[in-house]
């Protein structure tokens, strides 16, 4: 396949297909909820999210099985090194800090469109009064299953494919933009895209899909999960905000160091890139 065609497939077709797969999984979860609960299915968000996560895990299992049997390239799995775990934790806190700054900026934009979008977002993110079972299902899905599903789709599949043929910076940014666009809601698109770029950077620097999954889990737990099960006191919330803002600078510094050391950590990738170049006419590095 010509290099330009391969770029189009990896940077346009594959990410769109990933989004479609994710939307199909969501549609299946909603349909399942409607089958169980009828017209009142929207009152069972926890059940919907848990079903979405479980369906996603099944789809991922089938995908990984096929890739293994067909000996196709896939995301790397490993326990990771200590610096990778530190990167994942700091990245999660930095994403929360950046999200807070994002909302501070957005709320200062007094246009009718932005204000209406903010209102719609706040309405969408309201945590309804639910049974303990529904809350537990929503918590498990939000903090565990959904991060696994989204990271395998958007980092383990979409970004991994882009990195095989494209520049790392372009690949990380484009995959992050697709991740943001997938969320649909105007306000959510912005911070989700930023989070997607950071998670993509974590994946690239660690060369390990486990690390962005961990970062995503922590991000969702602190950002949404805590409020599902416990109201965080104002003083604790204030201290956490300071830690999140400080983590932005720490993350940038750590990411810069790990970027410079990446070739040293993963020297085998030089040979892999060379082999890809031989397979792609017209590509030279």
Relevant terms:
single chain; 285 residues; mainly alpha; 11 helices; disordered C terminus
Task: Give a description of the structure.
It is built from eleven helices and no strands. The chain is mainly α and 285 residues long. The longest helix is centred in the N-terminal third of the chain and has 35 residues, at 3-37. It is globular. Mean pLDDT is 89; it is low at 271-285.
What's the Cα radius of gyration?
A: 20 Å
Distance between the termini: 18 Å
Poorly predicted spans? 271-285
Integer tally of domains: 1
Averaged pLDDT, please?
A: 89
Q: How large is the count of helical segments? A: 11
Strand segment tally: 0
| Approximate helicity band | over 70%
User: How would a textbook summarize the main sheet?
Assistant: none
Strand coverage percent: under 5%
Order of helices and strands: HHHHHHHHHHH
Coarse morphology: globular
Main structural class: mainly alpha
């Amino acid at each position: 396949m010509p290099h330009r065609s391969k770029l189009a497939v990896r940077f346009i077709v594959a990410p769109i297909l990933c989004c479609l797969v994710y939307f199909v999984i969501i549609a299946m979860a909603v349909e399942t909820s409607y089958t169980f609960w009828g017209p009142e299915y929207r009152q069972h968000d926890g059940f919907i999210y848990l079903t979405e996560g479980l369906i996603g895990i099944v789809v991922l299992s089938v995908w990984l099985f096929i890739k293994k049997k067909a000996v196709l390239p896939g995301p790397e799995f490993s326990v990771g090194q200590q610096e990778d775990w530190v990167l994942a934790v700091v990245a999660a806190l930095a994403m929360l800090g950046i999200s807070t700054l994002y909302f501070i900026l957005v709320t200062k934009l007094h246009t009718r469109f932005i204000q209406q979008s903010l209102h719609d977002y706040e309405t969408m993110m309201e945590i309804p009064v639910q049974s303990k079972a529904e809350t537990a299902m929503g918590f498990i899905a939000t903090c565990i299953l959904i991060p696994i599903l989204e990271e395998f789709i958007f980092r383990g599949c979409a970004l991994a494919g882009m990195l095989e043929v494209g520049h790392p910076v372009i690949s990380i940014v484009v995959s992050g933009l697709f991740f943001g666009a997938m969320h649909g809601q105007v306000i959510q698109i912005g911070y989700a895209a930023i989070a997607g770029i950071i998670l993509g950077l974590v994946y690239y620097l660690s060369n390990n899909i486990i690390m962005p999954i961990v970062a995503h889990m922590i991000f969702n737990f602190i950002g949404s999960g805590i409020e599902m099960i416990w109201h965080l006191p104002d003083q604790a919330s204030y201290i956490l905000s300071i830690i999140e803002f400080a983590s932005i600078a720490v993350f940038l510094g750590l990411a810069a160091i790990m970027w410079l050391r990446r070739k040293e950590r993963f020297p085998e990738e030089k040979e892999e890139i060379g082999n890809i170049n031989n397979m792609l006419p017209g590509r030279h590095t």
